[in-house]
Amino acid sequence: MAVSSLIHPLYRRVVRTYLEPGGFEIIELPYTAGGITDLRKLESTEGLAAIAVQSPNFFGCMEDLGAVSNLTRGTQTLFVASFTEPLAYGLYKSPGSQGADISCGEGQSFGIPQSFGGPTLGMFTCLKQYVRSMPGRLVGKTVDRNGKQGFVLTLSTREQHIRREKATSNICTNSSLCAVTAAMYMASLGGSGIRELARLNYDKSEYLKRELKKAGFKIPFAAPTFNEFVVEFSPGFKAVYQRLLDQKMVAGLPLTPYYPELPDHYLLCVTETRTRNDMDTLVKVISDF
Questions:
Q1: What predicted TM-score, i.e. pTM, was given to this entire model?
Q2: Which of 16, 83, 189, 240 could pair with 289 as two cysteines, CB 3.0-4.6 Å apart?
Q3: pLDDT the model gives residue 83
Q4: E-only strand ranges, 22-166
C-alpha cells in the first residue's frame, strides 16, 4: 500500500498499527517542493492494494486527486482520499468527483465543539460496489406502508445479529449524537451556506498569508491551500513561539516533531471565527519580536 507522507502523522500511525502485523508492505510517498505528494515513484510500482492521499494535506495544500485517479483507473488498486477538513469541499471538487473509491476523515468542524480535542466525528463514504465491506451500520431513508417517511437499517445482512463474528458492522463506535449534530449543522447551512462559509475560510486564510509575506516571512509551499498553510519563520523562532504562548497566542503548529527536515516551519489555520483584527494583531506581534 502506498501512503502519502502528507497524510496526518497520526493517521499514518494507525495505518501501520493495522497493517504491519499482517505483513503488508507500506510505501511512504515523499512530497514535492510545492507541498504536495510526489507520485513519480508510483509509475514504476506494481501490485499495490491501495494509494492513499489526504487533501487538504497536512501542509494545508490541495492535492491533485485527478492525477492519483489516473494512476488507479483500470487497475485493481483502490484510491483512498482522506481529509481533516471536509468544509474544503464546499469550495474545491470532492474526492468522489475526482475518481476516489473511498473517502474518509474528520468531521469535527461540522458543528462539533472543541472540547480539549474532542469529541470527534468520523466521516466515511465509498463507491456503491464497496458498501457491503464498509465498517459501521448503514441507515437509509424509505417510506412505510402508509407512505410516511422513515429511516431504517440498510443492508442489515451485514449486521452482527445475522453474520455474527463475520459482520463488518461491529467495527465501529457509536457517535450518533455527533452524527446528528453534524447533520443538523449541514442542514442548517445548506449547500449555498456551506459554499459561502468555505469561501470565507479561504479568503481569511489568504489574507493572513498575504500579510505575513508582506511582513517578510516565507510561504514555502506554492500549491493552492484552503484554510491552513505553512509559514517559515526566522531561525530560533521557537523561543518567540513560547513567549507568544505565555500571552495566550498560538502561532501555529510546529512541524519539526513530524518533519525534522522543516525547522522553524509552522502550520497556521484561519477559520470564520477569526477577525481581521485578530490576524493583524498576530502579524504585528510576531514582527515586533
A1: 0.89
A2: 240
A3: 96
A4: 27-29, 50-54, 78-83, 102-106, 122-126, 139-143, 149-153
